[in-house]
């Protein structure tokens, strides 16, 4: 396994063999999970703490499941009932968990860079489960694994990432991963929701959704992250759907065998029509969630192997 670091803080900086090795290992865990078998020895005696300062359904649950399937002791720390509410800082919270000999610390935080800061202060391996608008690396891994299972390879694919690019750590991690692996990435959305320096990331920018979807292999829809917006960057949800919501008419412009993705949580009728989200052959949204467990098992596996045995 070529993975180069003690932590997983970002996709940016990883090279094709690092990503390919992680995806290959995740694929083996996907098959193991489907067989109903577990591998409870690998993380036996290890402690994994989920430290989520922002809401989550998929990421937190799948890290918990992944840790348990590999035999770790998993603690979900409830930030809303923790001493953070009494004014304890992020770093003091982390030092406290570190003193409990935690091996793997999974953190989601509203501030970009919070996981990187923690990684300098604790002995545990730190995994970024989403930091501000920066990155969400395990989401990009699970998206890539899902695409690879349907398309065979990431090389040469046209991937259209649509919607609120500006506030999306999912978009950022996917752009880094997909361009590193040889996909052609388009970002599609209104000018207010596309970062001014998007082209610097090696993507093509489209403000017309129909042009952006033309002949795409993969259509990835994103949620409007109103909680990160200051001011009215979009008109009404109804008007947004008219121009940028994925419906059958717009999807017809992509390749006939294109797949539709969404990291969740979805806002049906805002960025995606229910008939497309639930489409039996085109939508792979459920499979993304399944691959999330496999990818997180692969990440925990790789990072745990690099930890000293007696901590
Ligand atoms: N995709 C994703 O991060 O979902 P959650 O917010 O539910 O974890």
TrEMBL record:
InterPro entries: Asp/Orn_carbamoyltranf_P-bd, Asp/Orn_carbamoylTrfase, Asp/Orn_carbamoylTrfase_sf, Asp_carbamoyltransf, Asp_carbamoyltransf_Asp/Orn-bd. It catalyses: carbamoyl phosphate + L-aspartate = N-carbamoyl-L-aspartate + phosphate + H(+). Keywords: Pyrimidine biosynthesis, Transferase. Its EC number is 2.1.3.2. Residues 6-148 form the Aspartate/ornithine carbamoyltransferase carbamoyl-P binding domain. It holds the Pfam family OTCace. Carbamoyl phosphate binds at residues 58-59, 108, 136, 139, 264-265. GO terms for biological process: 'de novo' pyrimidine nucleobase biosynthetic process; 'de novo' UMP biosynthetic process; amino acid metabolic process. L-aspartate binds at residues 86, 169, 223. Pathway: Pyrimidine metabolism; UMP biosynthesis via de novo pathway; (S)-dihydroorotate from bicarbonate: step 2/3. GO terms for cellular component: cytosol. Residues 155-302 form the Aspartate/ornithine carbamoyltransferase Asp/Orn-binding domain. One of its GO terms (molecular function) is amino acid binding. Belongs to the aspartate/ornithine carbamoyltransferase superfamily. ATCase family. Reversibly catalyzes the transfer of the carbamoyl group from carbamoyl phosphate (CP) to the N(epsilon) atom of ornithine (ORN) to produce L-citrulline. Heterododecamer (2C3:3R2) of six catalytic PyrB chains organized as two trimers (C3), and six regulatory PyrI chains organized as three dimers (R2). HAMAP family: Asp_carb_tr. This is Aspartate carbamoyltransferase. The gene is pyrB.
